[in-house]
Design brief:
Radius of gyration: 18 Å
Order of helices and strands: EHEHEHEHEHHEHEHEHHHH
CATH architecture: Alpha-Beta Barrel
Largest sheet: 8 strands, parallel, barrel
CATH superfamily: Aldolase class I
Helix content: 40-55%
CATH class: Alpha Beta
Strand content: 5-15%
Number of strands: 8
Shape: globular
Structural class: alpha/beta
Strand order of the largest sheet: 1-2-3-4-5-6-7-8
Number of domains: 1
Length: about 290
Amino acid sequence: MKGIFTALMCAFDENGNIDEKGLREIVRHNIEESKVDGLYVNGSTGESFMLTTEAKKRIFEIVKDEGGDQVKLIAQVGSLNIDEAVDLAKFATKLNYDAISAVTPFYYKFDFEEIKDYYETIVNSVDNNLIIYSIPALTGVNMNLDQFGELLAHDKIIGVKFTAPDFFLLERLRHAFPDKLIYSGFDEMLLSASVLNVDGAIGSTFNVNGKRARDIFELAQNGNVAEALEVQKVTNDLIAGILDNGLYQTIKEMLKYKGVHAGYCRKPMKQLPEEKVARAQELAKKYM
């Protein structure tokens, strides 16, 4: 379960319905072109929090059918509706996903005991392992080392997707839990996280930049930090261009430029105007 995992995009048509052909092409692109080790399915990048339960299940099915056992698959099942989270965890486990993951419960100001109960309810419902998805900037949930420790004490909670710029906490987690999986979640900070000996990374831009992500990770692992820094610089130039143009929409337009039917984003996300589509194509031409 170590290595580079793409936070998988999902293709939708103009009405917000799943574009199955496009989703399959995105999966194939990540496996055959980006050469990633795994796919993180139905996370933020997959626009999961705007989908019905049935749509999420269908995405799990399509990705498993297309990807098979060629790469490791992690199913993000987190939801404010605990019954939905458990239902999705059971569904993905029956499909033989390699692990499940769940974002920390958000919006309401849950205390830690409530957060702990949320994770234990999900993981105890299935014969599968769980990876915590910590992204404080979007959830407002900040956990300290002791709280992570309470969660990771559960033998089926095997790691953390750590999407935060707190490298002091990241180092402390790595030191305290050498046998747990720690994934970097900020693509622009991959080198910094790799130097701290994370087990891998999960990122949205890996849909279009997976090879460079692997280079950064492996160069850092081998002690070639100066060379890895050069690759991170190019990566960050690309990321800056993507963020300035519109994150998810730009990645989809870049994939389209390479012949992948990546579809549209769901409302309320807006579509790119022509000048931004052109800019996305320029980024694809330069960096892919």
